[in-house]
Design brief:
This protein is mainly β. It has two domains: about 260 residues, Jelly Rolls (Sandwich); about 140 residues, Trefoil (Acidic Fibroblast Growth Factor, subunit A) (Trefoil), CATH 2.80.10.50. The chain has two helices and 30 strands. Strands 1, 5, 6, 9, 14, 15, 16 and 18 form an eight-stranded antiparallel sheet that branches. The N terminus is likely disordered.
């Protein structure tokens, strides 16, 4: 049975937005990140079941199709069998589809703005696309022509193919911006960058990055729904289903690293990354896979997820600064003792929301796909003090060399 908490989620939108506003005490975060279901504006989940044998509906279904297996992870399940299947919200006319989605995160996107939307997503084992439509992400108008989506990320029929599509203005059908592959029960990082542009304005675009590769898609076109003045994102599971889609079952799609952010140019980051030194190719890691305060950050061979001490979450805290949070320990990368001197060590420590700002970092684009990682408190850069495993990492004055330059590579 669906919990009272689940039934009331659409009533706590205001509380969710207040929580987002309070996440960064020092600055208003440019990126809205979903940690709990209450962070979204609302939910759209089935409350009816359709019985095709008798062409009848049963209303008032209380099964909880949208759940949260862990912090920041959201599961959208749709049930299907030969006798009955989940419907679309309370609609007792749409017998060919099921929907379990969350909608709205952070501020709405306006015409002429560019936004980045992210998800690290996966399907359940054995999942197959239903063939007509099977969306796991949408951008839709809040007003105006808000029936059809402006943007979708969709699984195509069967297994293995998906794409990002757009449906602008008076287009009679959607068109593909970028295609990409997927595998059942396998996490994939997807970042979508969309610029809206009204009729006659050929500056719109729809692009995507898959697991941190280069953005690609379509540019130089109109990107709007008629009469729409605001757009918002939706993450979830929305598919066609009929008596002919017998390959379907009780299937789910999960989303993590769910963010929405206004893009103003330059690099932007959200989610998990490996951070690789340009000179040595080695990763920034917490020594000994420690989870304790004051453990040193060093360079070491990246070990492809065997231990997550070499993986980091970049969390936007506003004004161009990020927290860098170790995936294993949950502790932040900081300059030891809030020192402003060259040679001070870089360690992990519990995040402090006040001053000093030795746990805040700026990603400075050095060109060629590499970045300096500059401390807010000291203005100095992270430097690898050697090229062998376990070499120390310190802060140093900018030396314009590869020992202070890093590739920041997105990972699931």
């Amino acid at each position: 049975m669906r919990s009272m908490e689940a039934i009331q989620r659409t009533l706590v939108t205001g509380l969710g937005m207040m929580a987002l506003a309070g996440m960064a005490a020092r600055a208003q975060a440019a990126t809205a990140t979903a940690v709990n279901l209450a962070d979204f504006e609302g939910e759209e989940e089935p409350q009816v079941k359709y019985y095709p044998g008798t062409a009848t509906w049963v209303s008032g279904d209380t099964y909880d199709n949208i759940t949260q297996p862990s912090s920041g992870v959201f599961r959208m399940e749709l049930r299907y069998n030969s006798t009955w299947w989940d419907g679309d919200r309370t609609d007792v006319t749409a017998d060919d589809r099921g929907r379990a989605e969350v909608k709205g995160l952070g501020v709405h996107q306006l015409p002429g703005e560019t936004f980045d939307y992210t998800t690290t997503w996966r399907t359940s084992a054995g999942y197959q696309g239903s063939g007509n439509f099977c969306h796991f992400f949408q951008i839709k108008g809040v007003d105006g022509d808000n029936g059809a989506p402006l943007i979708t990320a969709s699984i195509k029929a069967g297994v293995g193919t998906s794409n990002m599509q757009y449906w602008s203005g008076t287009m009679g059908a959607s068109a593909v911006a970028r295609s990409f592959t997927w595998s059942q029960a396998t996490w994939q990082a997807l970042k979508m960058r969309v610029k809206t542009a009204n009729a006659g304005d050929l500056t719109g675009s729809a692009q995507a990055s898959i697991n941190g590769d280069a953005m690609s898609g379509v540019t130089g076109l109109e990107m709007y729904r008629t009469g729409t003045t605001e757009y918002r994102p939706k993450w979830g599971h929305y598919r066609s289903q009929t008596t002919a889609t017998s390959m379907l079952g009780n299937d789910y799609i999960e989303h993590s690293n769910v963010t929405a952010a206004k893009y103003t140019g330059g690099a932007s980051f959200a989610g998990y990354y490996k951070i690789l030194n340009q000179t040595s190719g080695k990763a920034l890691v917490v020594a000994g896979a420690s989870t304790s305060n004051s453990a040193a950050v060093v360079v070491y061979d990246y070990n492809s997820n065997a231990t997550a001490n070499d993986e980091w979450q970049l969390l936007d805290i506003g004004s161009g600064y990020y927290r860098i949070i170790n995936r294993l320990s949950g502790k932040d990368m900081v300059v030891q003792s809030a020192s402003t001197s060259s040679g001070a060590g870089v360690i992990q420590y519990t995040y402090s929301s006040g001053t000093p700002t030795n746990d805040e970092w700026q990603m400075v684009d050095s060109g060629g796909g590499v970045f300096e990682i500059r401390n807010h408190n000291s203005g100095k850069n992270i430097q690898a003090m050697g090229t062998t495993n376990s070499s120390a990492v310190q802060q140093q004055t900018d030396d314009n060399a590869g020992d202070q330059r890093y590739q920041i590579v997105s990972i699931p």
